[in-house]
Amino acid sequence: MAVCTGGSALDACDKGGDAKGDRPPPPPPLTPASSHTDACANGGGQDTDALSASFVPRSAGGYCIDPQSEPKTYGDKGKLTMDEVCTTAFDGECEVYKRFGLDRVVVLRYVDGTGAPNSVEVNLSRFKTADGAYAMFTKRVVADGDPAGASVKAFAAQAAGAASSSNAYVWRGNYLVELTFVTEDTKMTPEGMALANEHSTAVIAKEIGSRLPGPTDLPPSAAILPQADRLPLGIAYYPTDALGMTAIGPIAVGYYADGDKRWRDVACLRSDAEGAKETFRAFKREKGAVPVTGLGEEAVQITLQEAADRARPDYIIARKGLLVAGVGDEELVLDPSMSADKQGARKLTKNQKIAKLAAWLK
Prior knowledge:
alpha+beta, nine-stranded antiparallel β-sheet, 9 helices, elongated
């Protein structure tokens, strides 16, 4: 587990599962955090950005906005451009955010009111749609890894919240908040880091989440995923492209476990019947698709391999009304070199997938 120390923040901290190189973005350099015990004596600094000031508390969790630094704003009505986000804030990951519709970022810092050499760095990102913001939240939390081994844990927030030993993430409406605990205390242990993070970063995250505008309900395709046996924080959300296919979203992928058995549920809830039919046709056109009778209004069995070096999970996909839903293998536990028997011990049978999907569609 990495411990965040020194000047950088989100680039050096642990997060969910096997991140596969997908690092959270560091904030741009700010002025050094105040080390004086009176930093928060007058309530701390101010968020001078008119658009975000009402979302950001001056103080929370014994921390306050650093009176010695100014918030940095990017994009819509910001002092800096979105191009400068790419060069100073997101350290090579800007295109990921842009793909999900990022249109504004505010970066600021909180300092420890006791004078300890600790701070909390905050990235407040706004997206054009709630779908885009939630998709980025799930990417930060799931990080293309296995939620079963994630280091982040869910915490109560107005919409969705997750925290590790040095980070916290909150999603609500069109906003994603990313917070990182940073310390200059070289004697701080990982256990001390986790405790300090819980008492500062997580508290600030909850307070910001309670102030953000927008709905707290999950996007419809995510909300309709079955809850039984779903892993904590076990949702990945894709506005357009998913499962190795393009232009089929928005699709939510749920991660499930029951004993040694692992599987995924996928859901795409469209606003009209023709849209649902169009999404289903994309699955139906996949090479090797085989019709399945007696399930929903139409159904197929297909194999969806996202890359040549990855496992070949089998899915049962069905459409009923506005919903396109599926149950498939969990490829993260299927090594292509495994014997069929070992893979079978971790997979649902075809009939089990059909049974789960039929119960869901009811």
